[in-house]
Amino acid sequence: MTSEDAIGAGSRHLEDILIRYNNLATRIWSLVLEKLPPVSEHIAQHIELLECIAAGDSEAAARLTTQHVTDFENLIRAVL
After folding, report:
1. Does residue 4 register a pLDDT over 70?
2. pTM over the 0.90 mark
3. 3-state SS string over the chain?
């Protein structure tokens, strides 16, 4: 969901939260970007996830999503 979606839904509170989270994510990303290894593996995980979604394999998509988020969180924590 984007802040535009929140505006369309008429939720100012949700819009504020989404904007705040986006700002925090951008700040974190800018702090760690130069410390991270190349993002090619990260992008490959996105491709694999999208292929599972396109194939309608929700179980594999859920598993890959959980693994992707966990791996990325661990990577970010390691460089902070």
Report:
1. no
2. no
3. CCHHHHHHHCCHHHHHHHHHHHHHHHHHHHHHHHHCCCCHHHHHHHHHHHHHHHCCCHHHHHHHHHHHHHHHHHHHHHHC
